Amino acid sequence: MLFNLNPGHTLSGGDVGTRGIGGLKEEVLTRQLVGEIDKELRGRGHSTNICRVDY
């Protein structure tokens, strides 16, 4: 099965995510999470596309 994964916010520009405790950045955390999900899905034999806008 093919999965399209979109982490959401851009790394810079007008659509960055929120900031959290200790300076955590949503746009960074969502990319890390998508990376883990990507590994898990590929490990189970699925195909993935990571759809993101980074500018």
TrEMBL record:
Protein known as: N-acetylmuramoyl-L-alanine amidase
- Organism, per UniProt? Clostridium botulinum CFSAN001627
